[in-house]
Amino acid sequence: MPVQRNTKVSIVGMGSVGTAIAYACLIRGTAGSLALYDTNAGKVRAEVLDLNHGSQFVPHCRISGSDDVAVTAHSAVIVVTAGAKQKPGQSRLELAAANVAMAQTLTPALLEQSPDAVIMFVTNPVDVVTFAATRSVDAAPGHVFGSGTVLDSSRFRYLIAQRADLAVGNVHGVIVGEHGDSEIPLWSSVSIGGVPAAQFHRDGTPVFDEQSRAQISAEVVNAAYEIIAGKGATNLAIGLSSARIIEALLNDQHRVLPVSTVQRGVYGIDGVALSLPTVVSAHGAGRVLEVALDDAELAGLHSSAATLRSVQESLGL
Questions:
Q1: pTM of the entire structure?
Q2: Separation CA 73–CA 76 (nearest Å)
Q3: Per-residue pLDDT averaged across 74-102, rounded?
Q4: CATH number for region 8-146
Q5: What is the enzyme's class at the highest EC level (predicted)?
């Protein structure tokens, strides 16, 4: 008789991001069961009720919630969104101290409830928080990682597709480094319907000249600031991208995604958490792929690593 696969997903923090992840998982049929955890008992009960009231219209999923961390017990995947949120004009790195302390306390408590779980941090600044969380426990390699630049890469691909007047599924491109101001768009490996960005022309004119590349890169970096200024938080796209990462974990998909892990020597980078194309499977975040970088991209990646390392050191990590 086949062993029943564990498809329980717990979401920690029922703010706008945690709620969006729960909703995306529900409508996509990502998980067999969802457990919602938040210290605000009234809020978590309300979200559980609201989601359950739509259960007729989505794939079957058991939804529970509590202000007791025990609700997360025996999870396959735990997603952490808890922490102070980014205010208008505030950089992700400015959030660091409070959210790092939260991660250092919370990660051991979550693994106590679910020793075999894979934990994904979405809390910002995700790279520094991921580094602190990874160092706070003795978990299996790749079992603690961050959502990284998966969303940034989606923003990048969307903007390229829009300019090329093609469906986003035809665009392949990735953002690496910090999930934040020092992130690096890898233009040298962008492919649009199989055509390198530098060779993509319309009526004999290059579509992605230096100016348009700079404009798209800036829009990706500033996207969150624009959304936060307009509605207070980014939540819907991070909900969808998180659900996609969870599916790669639960279904052992060996999907290459730019998630944030503590690096161990790729491109000469060590002892800092940042995003690079990484194989995501049931074992968590695994092998990092060494994509060919041009000189400027490599320099930018090292600069991004240095920025993150200085923040880690300022926090005593």
A1: 0.94
A2: 9
A3: 86
A4: 3.40.50.720
A5: oxidoreductase
